[in-house]
Amino acid sequence: MSAQPVSGVDTQPEGLRHTLLEDVFGLLSGAFVVSLGVYLLKTVEAVTGGTAGLALLLSYSSGWPFGLLFFGINLPFFVLAVKQKGWSFAVRTLISIGLVSGFAFLHPVLMPNLVIEPVYAVLVGNLLAGIGMLMVFRHRASLGGLNTLALLAQDKFGWRAGWVQLSTDAVIIAAALAVVPPANVALSVAGAVVLNIVLALNHRPDRYLGY
């Protein structure tokens, strides 16, 4: 079976493409699951990789809302997505980013003062984030930033998106030592490994059709 990279251009036979309704529900569901995972991380002051991890770090140090920071950090990458992946992919990605940012404001309102065991929060939070990202990827979108770069590397060089992102995540999590306690950073490392293993083992365009 030949490789079928995620791109901004529909290359799948008509019967394998997602319908508009499937895309809408897929992006909504994926963004919601990712935002819930990030909320679990935020409740225990943990971090993760990618622009979500960077937004969490800035949120802890500045007090600004995660949703606002996440959206702002990802805006420059929208230009890259347009140039490299096309308008369809870029618009879907911008919508997904906006949804995650919006849902990030919802969880603290509906689940205020959430108390959760840190190890459980970090592992489950990253697991949810990975599952949600897979859902977004399946519908020809990403969550911007380093996700877009990881997908571009996979398309152009055949590198697994999960492994590419794991290397960049290591740098971001190491920087967390300046913001959060070392124990939280150690937990975050374990969580990031979980997230990227989920992506590396499951995001295989050469195996899965129906974008």
Description:
- It is globular and about 45 Å long.
- The model is unreliable at 1-9 (pLDDT under 50).
- It is mostly helical and 211 residues long.
- The relative contact order is 0.21.
- The protein is built from eight helices and no strands.
Secondary structure layout:
Layout (H helix, E strand, L loop, with lengths): L19 H24 L6 H13 L3 H20 L1 H24 L7 H21 L6 H13 L3 H15 L6 H21 L9
Features:
211 residues; mainly alpha; 8 helices; globular
**Main sheet makeup:** none
Task: Using the alpha-carbon principal axes, give the shape.
Answer: globular
> Given the structure, what is the number of helices?
8
Structural class: mainly alpha
Report the strand count: 0
Round the Cα radius of gyration to an integer and report it.
16 Å
Distance between the termini: 16 Å
Summarize the structure.
Helices cover 72% and strands 0% of the residues.
